Every structure is written in C-alpha cells, then in structure tokens.
Amino acid sequence: MFKKILTATAGAALIGGLAACGSSSSDGAGSGGSGGSGGSGDITMGFSQVGAESGWRSANTTSVRDSAKTDGIDLKFSDAQQKQENQIKALRSYIQQKVDVIAFSPVVETGWDSVLQEAKRAKIPVILTDRSVDSEDDSLYATFLGSDFVEEGEKAGQWLVDNAADSDVDGNGAINVVELQGTTGAAPAIDRKEGFAETTKADPTIKVVASQTGDFTRDGGKKVMESFLKSQKGIDVVYAHNDDMGLGAIEAIEAAGKVPGKDIKIITVDAVKDGMTALSEGKINYIVECNPLLGPQLMDLAKKVVAGEDVPKRVVTEESAFDQETAKQVLADRQY
Ligand code: AHR
What we know:
The protein folds into two domains: 17-147 and 292-317, Rossmann fold, CATH 3.40.50; 149-289, Response regulator (Rossmann fold, 3-Layer(aba) Sandwich), CATH 3.40.50. The radius of gyration is 20 Å and the shape is elongated. With 336 residues, it is of the alpha/beta class. Helix content is 39%, strand content 19%. It has a seven-stranded parallel β-sheet, with helices on both faces. A six-stranded mixed β-sheet has the order 8-7-9-10-11-13, sandwiched between helices. The model is unreliable at 1-12, 14-28 and 30-39 (pLDDT under 50).
C-alpha cells in the first residue's frame, strides 16, 4: 500500500491535546446534501464529509464547523452520504468555485487520482483529513491529518492477547471472534482489520470465525450480529471496527438472551460517549480511542497551506484506550 510507505518515510508530526471549540458556519457544494450560508473569512474551504453514519462522524462534523467559525474560515460543507460519487461531485464543484483549499475525508481509499489531478491543475491545495487515499502520487495532496488506524487495530488485538484467558468464555480452549468491519474499502476498515490480525497472531487460540461489514452504522452492526448469532456456534468475542456497530451488536446479543460483556466479550474503536457509557456499564470490555476533534488542527493546516508555508506530509493524532474502570473515571468529562 502506497500510503503505508508514505507513513514510514515522510516526516510525521504527532498532535495531542485536541479540543473542540466555537460554533458553526457552513455552505453547500451541490451534491450529497449540505446546507447553511457561508462565513466571511479570507479563506474559503470546500469540505466534503463522508456522511453522518456514526457518533464519531457527528462529533467530527461539529468540530470542523465550529473551528472554521472560530478561525474566520468560510466553510462550504457537503455530506456525501457515504457515496464516493457524491464526494467526487463535491470536489469538482469546489474546483469550479475556485475555493482556496479543499479538505475531505475519503469514503474509500482508491479511485481519487483523476479528481485530485484536476484540483492540482487548478492550483487548489487538498488536505486529507481523518482518512487517507491509496495513491502512488503523494503530490496530489498537501498533508494528511488523522489517526493511525493500523495501530488502533493493534491495540484492540493486544488487549485480546493480554486477556485471552478471560475471553475464552466457554472454556473450550478456542477464542472464537466475530468481526464487524467498517465500510468496505475504507481506510479504517482495512487498517483496523490488518492491525488486529497481525497482533492476535501471537496467540493461536484466537481465531476470527466470521467477518462482515456493518458499514460503521448501529443498524448495520445489529443486523450482521443477528446473523452471526444464528450461523456461528460458541462466539466468545465481538471485535467491532467502531462503537456504533458494537452498540448494535449489544442489542442483538441482548435480544438473543445473552449478556454482552460477559457471555460475549466486546472490543470496539472510537470511544464516543454512547460507547464509553456502555463500557462503564460493563456491556463493552475495551475501547480503543479514535479522536474526532480534528477541526482546530485542520484549520491551522489550511491557513498554513494557503499561505504557502511548509507543513508535515503526515500529522498523526494522539490517542488512548479505555477499559471498564478508566471509562468510569473519564465519562463525566467526555466531550463527545
Ligand atoms: O474514519 C473514522 C471512522 O469513521 C470512525 O471510527 C467511524 O466511527 C466512522 O464512521
């Protein structure tokens, strides 16, 4: 994967202490749904969001909107409803409108080169935020701000390796894991799967017996878990690529008369408030954090890129992970 080579070789910066701020400003791009009127800043940013599929995404959208308003950036916002064609239309619309900078979170990794070349020809810098693209040509974007999704998957897998004895719920010597994958082709789905698989190799009793996409939604997680509960015997662990799918799985597990967190262990990624609440109640066992509050760093990078200043090619967000005890301690102060 080209982006992995990039991650290893490019100068990377680590950003911590992310914080939400301000209130919002927005405008449309003519595709995929959006709204509001623009601000009056010196910089106009066209932003194409993946959708509104999860609690994480809503928090990310709020952070971007609020930060644009705080920084006086005129934000044109478009919701792609998880469709790549909507994002491509939005990017083309931003190019036509001659915005100063484009930022987007790509719904899937591949298929972006043409539209990014169009932006490059129009001399409009592009910032990748949250998710990256898989492209041979890293001159097509100025920087990528977001999490290390492989590392998130590794943290989830490491917790299972470290807690293997407790996770063999039926005590038969095999830890049967079902995996709820994110959107097919999306960077976090690919990378979280890879990181988990790599780390859990250390324990041959851990086996992923079924793996299917729930599209990062609560409803998707619930439906896939319902079908796993019918088709798979002796499920010990659910590994969900985000909290929302894990929360959907909890509903399916409870409806099947089992106790989530006890009869079936649950590991998720994100650490949004609903997930952290379920963790503190004992229904989830471990959550790897993925921080959605990227707005302040995104606006900072945008101002620098528009001013022609150098920025790191990769800015990695700093993240943590929570077990049930630490979730209880931090829940009251959770911002999203
Ligand atoms: O790209 C980040 C992922 O997208 C989040 O983990 C998930 O909740 C969201 O839909």
